[in-house]
Amino acid sequence: MKNIGINVNTTKDPDKKMLNFIKKTIHSIDKSVKVKVYENCDGLDKDESTKLDVIIVLGGDGTILNTSKHILDSNTPILGVNIGHLGFLAQVEVNSIENALKKLFNGNYVIEERNMIQCIYDDGNGPKTYDGLNDVVLYKGIKSRIQRYDVYINENFYNTFSGDGIIVSTSTGSTGYNLSAGGPIIYPSLDILCLTPMYSQFLTSRTIVLDNRCCITIAVRKNFKNIFLSIDGQEWIEVNGPNTIEVRRSKNKRKFIKFDDNNYFDTLKDKINFKAKEGEVYEGN
C-alpha cells in the first residue's frame, strides 16, 4: 500500500477529526505512504482511482454508493468506514479503525467482488446507460396517482403491477429500498436480480427473484407526469411516459476490502436489530 485515497463526506466529518485520525494512523504504520484526500467525491473519477491502491470512504452507505458511481469501471477496491447511519456496505466501524488499518497494511484481507446492475433509458435524445450497485427504482412522484407498470422478462410478458413503483435490486441492494418495500434479504454473493413491486394495490403482488442472465423490461403505460427513475438513489431522472426501461446485470463489478472477522450475519443482527440471541429457546406464546 503506497498510494491511498480517502473520500470523506464532509457533512459526516465537518471538523475533519476522523479524517485526521486516519491519516495519522496510516503514517504511524508507514510514513512513506502517499495519502490523497477527496471531499464529497470532488476530483475522484476512474482515471484518478487507477493511481490508488485503495480508496477509504468515510461516511455511510450513500457515500460509498456515490464513490462507486464516480469510479464506475475501476478495479480499485473500496474500504468503507461507517460514520453514517446503518452502514451495511462499510467493513469498519469507528471503534475498530486502528485495527483495520493494521490488517490492511499486513495484507490480512480479501477482495470481495459485488455484482452491479444496469439500466437503459431513452429520454428522447437517444438511449442512456446507468450503472448502480444497489438498485434501479421506477417511482411515481408524491402528487402522481397510482401508476400501472407492465413487466416483461426476456421479452416474455410477466405481469402488470398497479402501485407506487418497481424496484429491481442486486443481492447487495436487497437490504436497502427493497427490504423497506417488503422484499427479501439476499446473501450478497448470490448473482441474482430481485424485482419487487412497491406498495401494490393487490396482495398477490410479490417479489420475484431472477437469474442474473434475465433482462427485465418495465413499460410505463400512460403519459403521467412525475414518474422518476433512480439509480442507487444518487440521481433522479424524470421519465416522460409512455416509455420503457430495460434492466439487466452490469458487466462492471465493485471490489471491496473484506476482513476475516466481518461476519455478514453479525452485520444483519447489528444493523436490522434482530432480537433473537444465539442459544435462545423459543417457548411459544
UniProtKB/TrEMBL annotation:
Organism domain of life: Bacteria
One MF term in the entry's GO annotations: metal ion binding
EC number: 2.7.1.23
Pfam families to which the protein is assigned, alphabetical: NAD_kinase, NAD_kinase_C
Active site feature: D61 (proton acceptor)
Signal peptide: none
Reaction(s) catalysed (UniProt annotation): NAD(+) + ATP = ADP + NADP(+) + H(+)
Cofactor(s) needed for function: a divalent metal cation
GO CC, one annotated term: cytoplasm
Keywords noted in UniProt: ATP-binding, Cytoplasm, Kinase, NAD, NADP, Nucleotide-binding, Transferase
Localization terms from the record: Cytoplasm
Gene3D superfamilies xrefs: Probable inorganic polyphosphate/atp-NAD kinase, domain 1, Probable inorganic polyphosphate/atp-NAD kinase, domain 2
Any Gene Ontology biological process: NADP+ biosynthetic process
Residues annotated as binding NAD(+): D61, G62, N134, D135, R145, D164, T175, G176, Y177, N178, L179, S180, Q234
Function: Involved in the regulation of the intracellular balance of NAD and NADP, and is a key enzyme in the biosynthesis of NADP. Catalyzes specifically the phosphorylation on 2'-hydroxyl of the adenosine moiety of NAD to yield NADP.
Family as reported in the entry's similarity comment: Belongs to the NAD kinase family.
PANTHER family found in the cross-reference section: NAD KINASE
HAMAP family per UniProt: NAD_kinase (MF_00361)
Protein name: NAD kinase
Encoding gene (name): ppnK_1
